Amino acid sequence: MLARILIVDDAAFMRQMLVQMLEDKYEVCGVACNGVEAVRKYRELQPDIVTMDVTMPEMQGIDAVKEIIGIDPEATILMCSAMGQRQLVIEAIRAGAKDFIVKPFQKEKLLEALSRWA
């Protein structure tokens, strides 16, 4: 059975790129464009893994991580961050994220990171 993934990013092109990179190895069960939607969809879909952007409108990725961990302390969340967001990534890991992937990323690096948690 394929691991179910929720993709969270405010950039439509990034969501689409992630779907295309992952759909042959994982079940992409949903996408969200901000932290508020991510929390709602996490409750609804109960995915195995979440890829979470750091900087988003309405609710930042770190705040969404905190809320999701509050719902499910065992949630597997991988942060997707741009270079230069190191402090935010550290904060996200402290909030409960399991790992991070630096944007822009190659498909192989993304699949390698996800394979550690799937």
Based on CA inertia axes, which overall geometry fits?
Answer: globular
End-to-end separation in angstroms reads 11 Å
What's the Cα radius of gyration?
Answer: 12 Å
Largest sheet: 5 strands, parallel
Average of pLDDT: 92
- What order do the SSEs take from the amino end to the carboxyl end, as H and E? EHEHEHEHEH
Name some characteristics of this structure:
5 helices; 5 strands; 5-stranded parallel beta sheet; 23% strand; 118 residues; alpha/beta
Structure description:
The mean pLDDT is 92. This protein has a 5-stranded parallel beta sheet, with helices on both faces. α1 links the parallel β1 and β2. The chain contains 5 helices and 5 strands, in the order βαβαβαβαβα. The chain is of the alpha/beta class and 118 residues long. The longest helix has 11 residues, at 12-22.
In a nutshell, what does this entry contain?
The protein is of the alpha/beta class. The protein has helices at residues 12-22, 35-45, 61-71, 86-95, 107-115, and strands at 4-8, 27-32, 49-53, 77-82, 99-103. 44% of the residues lie in helices and 23% in strands.
How do the strands and helices of this protein lay out in sequence?
Elements: E1 4-8, H1 12-22, E2 27-32, H2 35-45, E3 49-53, H3 61-71, E4 77-82, H4 86-95, E5 99-103, H5 107-115
Parallel strand pairs: 1-2, 1-3, 3-4, 4-5
